[in-house]
Amino acid sequence: MTETRAVIDRHIESFNARTPDDEPWSENAELIGPGGTFNGRDGVLEFLSVFQAAFSDGRLTVHSAIVDGADASVEGVFDGVHDGILNSPSGPVPATGKSVSFRWSATYRVHDAELISEHLYFDQLDLLDQLGLLAG
After folding, report:
1. Which pTM was predicted?
2. Alpha carbon distances (Å) from 10 to 3, 13, 74, 122
3. Choosing a second label site near 90 at 20 to 30 A (CA), which of 6, 27, 84, 125?
């Protein structure tokens, strides 16, 4: 296993275990995802905590990864039950009690055993539909 993949795996494990102190994000990290750009370790961890609060059992699973030196492209699935408030850019979404399972993809950059960048993609409409929030 490469150092890059090991750092990404450490992030996934820390997210799933809810252990932010173990997250490998650098102090100057940047995460670009749905809802905007989140800068610095604290900003990235705050973005991730939104999902952890809304889905207390939420888990990331990696299905594939392609690593090229310090860069990696990863695909996976997020599974969880919406049992907490989801603080979205449009305002808070109360718990629906619904299970969700959606695909995600991210490109990462690692430097000195730390994550310095993530560009995260997932289908927001799929998530909203699974939560029952789209008018049918």
Report:
1. 0.94
2. 10, 5, 14, 21
3. 27
